[in-house]
Amino acid sequence: MSRGVWQALGVVPYPIGLEIQRRVAEERAGELRPDTLLLLEHPPTITLGRRAGEKHVLWDADRLARAGIAVERVGRGGGATYHGPGQLVGYAITRLSSQGRGVRRFVSRLEALLLDVVHSFRVQASLRTGHPGIWVGDRKLASIGIEVRRGVSRHGFALNVDVDARPFAAIVPCGVPGLEVTDLTHETGSRISMETAARRVLAAWWRQFGQIEEERANGFVAAG
User: Fold this and answer.
1) Mean pLDDT across the stretch 49-53?
2) Mean pLDDT of 203-214
3) How many C-alpha atoms does 192 have within 13 Å on its Cβ side?
4) Which of 132, 155, 174, 179 has a Cα-to-Cα distance from 107 of 20 to 30 A?
5) Active-site residue identified among 69, 80, 113, 174
6) How many Å separate Cα 60 from the centre of its chain?
7) What is the DSSP string of the chain?
């Protein structure tokens, strides 16, 4: 297992998060840095992956604007999803051993990492064939979607920790009409902090991918 680094970026507007990913991924592709996990939150934002169409956004532009929700089309796999406060986003900038099976194996390892995290809170979650992410019954707890360029992954996972679920009604989540979402706070019956969830993610990353050390953000624009 290789040694990686992680950064805590706080709350980051989605376009700035994309730019940070781009810069880190280019450094990783050029062997200028190790595998890097970026942990952050986004302001209210709907993102549309490669499988998402405009029909997957159910609210019109005026209603989205009144709710303060931005819409971004991105290169990751998957459909429409929502990011907002109380959701822990992990961007895994990682060199993959190969395309094809290497990509599928990486997604499987991210799922295993998230299952490790969720089970550590004594929540009985599972996987669902054909639908990447973590599920509690028919409710989705975490989403996964990646993009690979020059053999390096971008994007990653979004774990609902203590999130307002109402904005999810603005979309068809992951292309599944009527899909319910949930979060760790609801499933445990106790309020879970972002800091606690992040610590569990880092511990699970260590077990799944190897040693990881904190790297202070250097020159990246982020708001705490």
Assistant:
1) 79
2) 93
3) 28
4) 179
5) 174
6) 25
7) ---EEEEEEEE--HHHHHHHHHHHHHHHHTTSS--EEEEEE-SSEEEE-TT--GGGB-S-HHHHHHHT-EEEE-SSSSSEEEE-TTEEEEEEE-B-S-STHHHHHHHHHHHHHHHHHHHHTT---EEETTEEEEEETTEEEEEEEEEEETTEEEEEEEEESS---GGGGGB-BTT-TT-EE--HHHHHSSPPPHHHHHHHHHHHHHHHH--EEE----S---B-
Rounded mean pLDDT of 41-50?
91
% of the chain surpassing 90 pLDDT: 74
The sign one gets for the Cα dihedral 117, 196, 156, 82 is positive
Question: pLDDT band at 209, cuts 50/70/90?
Answer: very high
103 is catalytic: no
Q: Is the dihedral of CA 220, 66, 144, 175 positive or negative?
A: negative
What is the Cα–Cα distance from 49 to 216, expressed in whole angstroms? 30
Which domains does the chain possess? 4-214 (3.30.930.10)
> Using N-to-C axis directions, what is the helix angle for 101-120 and 194-209, rounded to 10°?
130
Residue range 90-119: average pLDDT? Answer: 89
Core vs surface per residue 38-53: b (16+ CB within 10 A) or e:
bbbbbebbbbbbeebe
Instruction: Provide the whole-model pTM.
Output: 0.90
